[in-house]
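S1.2 Input.
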Amino acid sequence: METKRSINKTIETIYERRAIRKFKSDPVPRGIIDEILNAGRMAPSAMNKQPWKFYVLSSPATIERFSKAILSESKFTMLKAGVKEAIHHIFHPGSFHLKDGIEFMKQDDPIFHGAPLVIFISSPRSNEWAQLDVGMCAQNMMLAAKSLGVDSCPVGLAKFIEQTKEYEVMSVPSSEKIDLAVLFGYANEVPEIHERKTDNVSFLD
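S1.3 Output.
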């Protein structure tokens, strides 16, 4: 499958975006943060409810503290459930083999990967469509960031923040839940391009 297109800038950005897990320490300028948030706000949502809310971390000390809290909770979950079962619970089934999951959790910062900017996205617990909306919102943000020279990575493990003492600092209303966080920053790696499945389409008519 062709991995880069030059039809237009939007298509190029989609093909160039990668999940980055090694970041430089350079901060993301506030103006770019605002553009990323605005791009998220422009995402489609069911009945235009725009259910997302954003909680932004840009302090290295706070990001490190949150990461350690989430990591501790994740490890505790592994101890309670058993490592194999926990890996399958924490990571989407089929996305990690057991060995890969264990190695992943041994990284210095397997949660936020040293990113200089973390944006948590929440949605109302009562909105059954909100997670789909949040997914589209996050994708808008990541593509906008890439077009501005900033890389990103979505982090599902971020939802464990709700089970830590740091969650109180965020002042998230009880009616909301954290769906994920997205990391932003300047890449310090060039990830491999993974093959994409092409046998997953059925033309019905």
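S1.4 Remarks. The first strand starts at residue 53 and ends at 57.
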